[in-house]
Amino acid sequence: MDSGSSGDEPTSWEDLCSINLMPSELFLKFRKELQGFRVGVNLEFYNAPCNEYEAKLVLKPLYPNQRWKFIYEPIRQDIRLLSKKIPVTKFLNLQVGIGHNFQMHATGWKWKLTTCLGGDGVSRIRNKSSISPFPGLDFRFGWRADYVLPEITGALGTGEPLFNMNSGRLEASLDRIEAIVTHGDES
User: Fold this and answer.
1) How far is CA 187 from CA 5, 43, 152, in A?
2) Residue 81 lies inside a defined structural domain of this protein
3) Domain range spanning residue 53?
4) DUF7781 domain: from which residue to which, for each copy (predicted)?
5) 63-117 pLDDT, tens per residue?
6) pTM of the entire structure?
7) Does 153 map to a domain?
């Protein structure tokens, strides 16, 4: 009996499972709530593929059905008005925005479809998890997991192996860490 092992399969758990805990994005967000609006300063540090830094000023309403947010990026001289992510299906969201770049004297609009299922829609999960150690401080962790599920196949009388097993793979990473400091309205 041939087990079907073609030598292509990884031979150790280290080859089957890879977990990267070094984030490629670090965000520090400072928020102040004033008269029904949240004013924020975001300091964004990108580690890969090259070191970059961005600063953003963000204004958005706090009412429950908030549908937009305003973003100004002083380094790029961009201003944008973005819609809230609009659910299209359970796993698919649409976001629309209009913006202007003062350096290029250009105005345009963008749209994007996003999902927590990335890649080919089956083999990647992207998600955010949050913890709040105390009011006014939140940590948000953006992570992803790329995987190939284990598969067992076999055949009889076809020239293929009687038993063949692909053990699957998992590659997980911590992509983003956000520290969010919020100061409430003092009125």
Assistant:
1) 70, 27, 64
2) yes
3) 22-146+177-183
4) 12-183
5) 888 889 999 999 989 999 999 888 898 878 899 999 999 999 999 999 988 776 6
6) 0.71
7) no
